[in-house]
Amino acid sequence: MHRYKFILHRPVQFLPVIFGVSLITFILVRLIPGDPARVLLGARSTPAALANIRAQYGLDEPLWLQYFYFLKNLVNGEMGKSILYKIDVLPLIATRIEPTVTLILCSVILSILIALPLAAIASRNQGSLPDHTVRIFSTLGIGFPPFWLGLMLMILFSVKLGILPVSGYGETFGDKLAHLVLPCLTIALSLSSVLTRSLRASMITELQSDFATAARARGMPESIVFWRHVLPNSLAPAVNLLAVNIGWLIGGTVVVESVFAIPGMGQLLVRAIFSRDYMVVQGVAMIFACGTMLVNFIADILTVAIDPRVKL
Amino acid sequence: MRIEIAAALAMLTFGASIAEAQGVLTIGRREDSTTFDPIKSAQNVDNWVFSNVFDVLVRVDKTGTKLEPGLAESWTISEDGLTYTFTMRDAKFSDGSPITAKDAAFTLLRIRDNQGSLWSDSFKVIETAEAKDDKTLVVKLKTPSAPFLSTLALPNVSVIPQKGMEALGEEAFAEKPIASGAFVVKEWRRGDRVILEKNPNFWQADRVKLDGVEWISVPDDNTRMLNVQAGQLDTAIFVPFSRVEELKKDPNLNVEIDTSTREDHLLINHEHGALAKKEVRQALDMAIDKKAIVDTVTFNLGEVAYSYVPKGSLYHYADNLQRPYDPEKAKQMLADAGASGLSLNYVVNAGNETDEQIAVLLQQQLLKAGVTVNLQKVDPSQSWDMLIAGDYDISVMYWTNDILDPDQKTTFVLGHDTNMNYMTRYKNDQVKDLVAAARLEQDPAKREAMYVDLQKMAKADVNWIDLYYSPYINVTRKNIENFYQNPLGRFFLEDTVKN
């Protein structure tokens, strides 16, 4: 059981990371030129009105003091007040978490459902026509920009065929699912390309490994060699690849949420950045950072579970 | 196969969700609302919904050039122009309580005094606002102000209930307000949509044909258009110029083009070297082919601008000087002014397609007059700081009016007030005095003459270079009638019909 010991002490390492993220986002968002007060007031902003807004949100305080307040809030489980929406950041973000998490989760599941069979076909027929087809597919998938792919899917399935909603997010579970098909497909088409390539490569390595050869020598049919020995051993790198890609996935949802008008954290982040809504940017960045750490943590646990040789 | 299952599932669920919305108008826009406290926003995205939910004392009509009674049935103005007496109409808030002069007075003082008000400057002129009785509101001004009445039509000074606001608290009110207009906020799914339903207590409830309205946020322009093309939204606003031709060809759609007060103009920093000379600025005006900009940038949907008071708005001077496009003459004028080989630093809003297009066009055009233009692309919120600091030679900006009276824009652009005449550092004392005098003048005919003079003087001095006016462009399904905006942007959803 000592192999799982890291589950206990790993979370302690999260604290300095969270502190670091808070400091970096705090500084970065303030390094972007521009001013939330000016965005709020628009073209009619006068020096007096600007000063009034800055004072209200404590933007006229020294930076170190602003950061101190931010940390103090954080310790109390608060994230300050949004300048654009004039409400607390946490409830503002809270309603946006579910769409983003669902989008990422469904996209990952769909990617795996696409990548696994493709990689299996390709690796077992290495160098043949199916293999080349899969490789072309995965190159194309990486090549298409998601916003373009999303629009093409919309035109085909929603405008021409009229079978799926163009954009948005539903209320009921079924409604949500219907709204998520195209955005998930958009993400999955590029994510599964990366995944297919990695899986195919590790499957080929495992197919040629000594234990596979030994299994064949014992007279084990090829399909059993594949399912019992090759597949489990190829999964570990793929799980790690997915975990590493979580950052990329989150970045991807920012684009996809905007294209498909999904009211998630990505969209919130984009608007917060454009209006220099510092508190919201910091809040979303913190949540994304925690999410990334959590995913990597889970991936580590999975890797240990999948491969008995791994120790963390 | 998986896609087919999902699609079949989608058909089942989605089919169910469109059937219910009969008299509910769905409108796609870029961004979702930020608040329902009218004094706490200065953004169109909020103001346009405030107008659906709240009523004001005085309204602007469909043409955007006349005031008409709103919650104030009638009013009188004292001889000295200082005392306004309003008679309130019999009307109710959405909670059934009467809308009284007390509520109106509360509203006016709140927008003037509230810490969070973004509009206190516009209402500083109010000395007192009192309810003589439930029906009579008396407002005393510190100085006479001709534009005062038209500022009362701002959606931000929408009448709100004193008792209701005090009972709910500001934050709860901003989430789910008590309405005085045609619709009430039924539900606000932040980041997604605002769901309005008809307000049965609205004093003009008979006029409202829709059961409800949904303002739905669809940030991507292409996605928003596709939603209307696919029939999943009834209308979409902010149609890009480039899409109009194609959408017009679709037999299921109407493209609605409404006059707006938007004017795009080229700011000039009068404090930078040769730009201080009037002749140099005039030469630049002649070196710019505005028609080419209208053709390329607005796909010919805009119009060449020639006055800072936009076409279709109050006191617009239609015969204002239009300098002909003549790069050769411009070159000569620059040489005469000792400004040959002029080199200008042009601050461009990066990422804004229109601004970047204009920048490239202007660069080519000015080169023909021997002027070198260096494009400096910066983020929009950074460019504002640079303009304020005077760290630029030329830059394109735009302005839309909030009120029908020209005073607001005139003060910002020519009043020598705050922001250095909209960052141009333009100085002309004669103009400054006339702006102040026009604000006080009570006789409309005399006032109009003063604004005509101002338009001529600004053009003669080239305070900035007027580039083009552009309209609001919205697209609707064919079954939608009477969906339009007035030049100030107000949507008259109380007249809209969904067949």
From TrEMBL, chain A:
Subcellular location: Cell membrane
CDD domains registered for this protein in UniProt: TM_PBP2 (cd06261)
ABC transmembrane type-1 domain mapped to chain residues: 97-299
Transmembrane segments: 12-32, 101-122, 134-157, 177-195, 238-263, 283-306
PROSITE patterns per UniProt: ABC_TM1
Domain of life: Bacteria
InterPro entries in the cross-refs: BPD_transp_1_N (IPR045621), MetI-like (IPR000515), MetI-like_sf (IPR035906)
GO term, biological process aspect, one: transmembrane transport
Keywords: Cell membrane, Membrane, Transmembrane, Transmembrane helix, Transport
GO CC terms: plasma membrane
Gene3D superfamilies in the cross-refs: MetI-like
Pfam families, per the entry: BPD_transp_1 (PF00528), BPD_transp_1_N (PF19300)
Xref: PANTHER family: DIPEPTIDE TRANSPORT SYSTEM PERMEASE PROTEIN DPPB-RELATED
Family in the record: Belongs to the binding-protein-dependent transport system permease family.
Protein name: ABC transporter permease
Provenance organism: Phyllobacterium endophyticum
